[in-house]
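can u pls check wat happens w/ iron/sulfur cluster
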Amino acid sequence: MDQSDLIKVTINGRDFQVAKGARLIDVCRENSFNIPSFCYYADLALQASCRMCLVRIEKMPKLQTSCTITCTDGMIVTTQSEEIEKAQRSMLEFLLANHPLDCPVCDRGGECELQELTFDWGNLEERFVEHKNARPEKYLSPMIANDPQRCILCKRCTRVCDEWMGEEAIEAGNRGANTVIGTFGGWLNCSQCGNCIEVCPTGTLLDGTYRHQARPWELTQTVSTCNYCSDGCQMSLGSRGGELMRVVARDRYVNGHNGEFLCVKGRFGHPFVNHEERIRTPLIRYKEGGRLIPATWDEAIRFTAENLDRVVREHGNNALAVVGSPRLTNESLYCLRKFATEVVQTENYAVSDTFSLRPFFENLGGQLATHHDIRFAKTIVLIGGEPEELQPLTGKQIRQAVRNGGAKLIIINSVPIRLREQAAKFVHIKPGTEDAAVLALADTGSNSLASRKMGIETGDIDGVRKLVSEAQGDLIFMFGSELSGAAQSIVAQFPHLFAGDGRRVLLHPLPLFNNSVGAHDMMGGGAKQATDLIARDDKSIRAMIVAGDPRLTSVGGDDIAPQLPEFIVLFEHFLSGISPYARVVFPAASYAEVDGTFTNNDGFVQRVRKAIEPVHQSIPDWMIVARLAKELGVDFGFERSASAVFREIGERVPAYAGLRYPLLKDESNPVQVKHAIAAQRDLANELETVRHGVEELSDEGEKILHTPPVGHELFKLGTLTEKVPQIRLLAAGNPTPETFAISPLYQITIDENLKREAAIA
Ligand code: SF4
Ligand code: SF4
Ligand code: SF4
Ligand code: FES
């Protein structure tokens, strides 16, 4: 920082050089002066209602709220004195006047900010003897329980809902002493992220799925990475006695790039881990058409290895295919590729991800934008995609960049997605014409063709170009899975095309799965398209190892059965998808039971940590592969240690060179993988391919006018989320229960026959 940007502030007699414009409460805390607060929440609009953060500032008449004060040069501040403490104790006494003091039965007891500050700053003696303003507990949704009496009206919840989620689903109602936080009609129809629960400093908003099940101090907290989308939220898995009880991102446990943010899947989608339907033992179908029969590990490994060996001997190495899911850890995907290339030497290996990032990474012309970059970007261009539903943390960062950072958002989309409300420019195109948008941006000569196909005016793309060319500060291009490979290659080169003074041009793909990026990195350039391997009808593939059911990642539908090879080996948590066709099923450990890493859409390599022992007889996918390799005569030498696998990744995968687990231990300081940056390339071939595709597009076609409802992707049931009764209720339309006081799970029977679309991610 330039010396001229620094000013001098004196706090409790000590001098500090601080940045011009710094907020006093932050400066005090950064320098270890403890300031109590309830309503202040960094990166949210100011509320200034609790008056706990009082300080004395020389030459100012009264005590001041440090959360609202911007430091000025020469400011002299006192944070501790009898006068300040007396005021803070009085504030707490008022806050507790109506508070029930039922900490022994409150789920938040033990990690409640009100409880802690009362111990530190309170009088610990109640002088109010009047009746408290009692209100009954109730549910606001399948996920959110509410005890309105405990509310201190700090309004963190309403601000988070508005500013992070863009939903305004909860608000303060009534007046004065009767003010309560509530929702329109009493029932919450929102994305059910639970961030209002997370930021609530008291036990007013509570996790309805974990209610009264455990006390915080009984839980072992394990910092890990979410297993759903590619945003890679850092979270704390709270476990007790081998059971995963809850997931939070509370900052006392985790300090990751998502702060206290999680979405509905990350926060509430974990009960599949200890679900009773988890596969308990390896299963063998000895005869085609027979039943799957429980077997020992030794027997199942031997049976599988013998059959794989037979297939390779009889039909050649390429008769065996290996397909890994983008949901697996880097360690498991790396071992799958090692098995394919070093043990069997088959050319047929792939990731079951319909959105292949290979063209993007092969042409990557600039750095990947981190979520921090998005939050502080000045211009964001989103082509296709729907981050609010498929990458919710990215959605939240975009919203805050616009609302709190003044960023310009440009959206080119065939669906009027909710984020368009935040956009400075929304270009509404016809479905399936996203490639045309890329063509028009990259090649002005194609603007009129592309605009005609997109159903827009040529001036629309000129308008986008103008905004982009004027951009100062970070300019970020994001794109969804609608783009073809050739169009992705062009976007990957945008940092060269749109380079300019005073700005960085960054890229942020929107992959669909938690480890889509890692899967690309681990499988390398030799990987095939999974659809080509799974739905190949020439019968050249006779056996296939499938780690993670590809149906879960939208590769292949019900019609793939006739093309499937005769000998399928499946690693899974549940019997589902293609398990009726599998000859061997191995119980695979879930993300909560393994050590490993995922790589998110920032390119961050993030630790996955074992919170509980693997349930039943499951083991990590990479270990299953290593056991099979050993049976076939190749010892990987990893000796049950995921860190040994990762060490080899650090030695052999160039972008991960030198990485080791100890270097990844601090989630507040994540490590970005070093994807090779390509020099500016001649894009003539890719432009020609895209132009040709655009010419082929029909001139007809209607635009989609309807904005899809909140949760239309988030609440779709996948194999993991369908094991969560509360998410099943959401998928069934979030029905309102008869009474809000009793858990909706006891009041609503879910219609098993309900037709539902499978989740994309
Ligand atoms: S769950 Fe999320 S969207 Fe719903 S009210 Fe709470 S913060 Fe708002
Ligand atoms: S519900 Fe919680 S976060 Fe919301 S105003 Fe009340 S105490 Fe604050
Ligand atoms: S935004 Fe993505 S990574 Fe974060 S909690 Fe939700 S699903 Fe998990
Ligand atoms: S934290 Fe400053 S008034 Fe609440």
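Residues 37-40, 48-53, 65, 67 surround FE2/S2 (inorganic) cluster (ligand 4) (CB under 6 Å).
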